TrEMBL record:
Entry keyword annotation includes Thylakoid: no
Gene Ontology BP, a term: nucleobase-containing compound metabolic process
UniProt keyword annotations, A-Z: Kinase, Nucleotide-binding, Transferase
Source species taxonomy: Eukaryota, Metazoa, Ecdysozoa, Arthropoda, Hexapoda
Keyword Transferase listed: yes
Protein name: Adenylate kinase 7
Organism the protein comes from: Cacopsylla melanoneura
Top-rank taxon, per record: Eukaryota
SUPFAM superfamilies linked to this entry: P-loop containing nucleoside triphosphate hydrolases
Molecular function per GO: ATP binding; nucleobase-containing compound kinase activity
Length: 209
């Protein structure tokens, strides 16, 4: 049979806190896996010496730019960028971020924030501000698309969208193929002047036979 001591050991509900780990690990590990995604991804890329491939393909019409670009995207599993897909992907990423921030704010609003916990309060305020910015960008993009009644033809607007798009880690860490745009060296210099880590590292120029 089981004596009283063994029985007590079996039924005791212990709440064990990993005190050593909490005190010695980086504070960022107190956050969720999602919140640490950028850090984990960066660490993985650096530790494995991975270098995202970023390709710019240029050439005259019917030179096979699109076919080559799509084959490269399929082979390397990277993003395919044209004037139109840049806008579509940008809108999708903004929408995903908007949903995430709304969820986070809803979760925090259900919790009582004490006067002493100012860091959490500041975090909520920062997320609220970011949400406003994201929603403003979505509204502006909808307005531009409505006015264009189709693909955006203004190169300056597309260039600004591309710059914003390249600020997303999931783009710069994975890589992309730019299909025929930007189509001038001056535009490439303008877009990537201060963004060396996001700039194309492979240039392909196609010609007609």
């Amino acid at each position: 049979g089981i004596d009283e001591v063994i029985y007590d050991h079996l039924v005791t509900n212990l709440n064990v806190t990993p005190k050593y780990l909490i005190e010695h690990l980086d504070k960022k590990f107190n956050e969720s896996f999602y919140d640490n995604g950028a850090f984990i991804q960066k660490q993985y890329v650096e530790d494995n010496r991975l270098k995202p491939i970023r390709i710019l393909i240029d050439g005259p019409p019917l030179s096979g730019k699109t076919r080559l670009a799509m084959k490269l995207c399929e082979h390397y599993n990277i993003h395919y960028f044209t004037n139109e897909t840049i806008t579509t992907l940008y809108r999708e990423l903004l929408t995903v971020r908007e949903k995430y921030l709304k969820t986070k704010l809803r979760e925090k609003s259900t919790e009582e924030i004490s006067q002493e916990d100012l860091s959490e309060d500041n975090s909520k305020s920062a997320e609220s501000e970011e949400l406003k910015i994201i929603q403003s960008k979505i509204a502006e993009l909808k307005r531009v698309l409505y006015e264009c009644n189709g693909p955006i033809t203004d190169e300056n607007i597309v260039m600004n969208i591309l710059e914003e798009l390249l600020s997303f880690k999931r783009i710069t860490n994975i890589g992309y193929v730019l299909d025929g745009w930007p189509n001038t060296y001056e535009l490439v210099k303008e877009i990537f002047a201060t963004k060396d880590k996001m700039a194309p590292n492979v240039f392909i120029k196609l010609d007609l036979d």
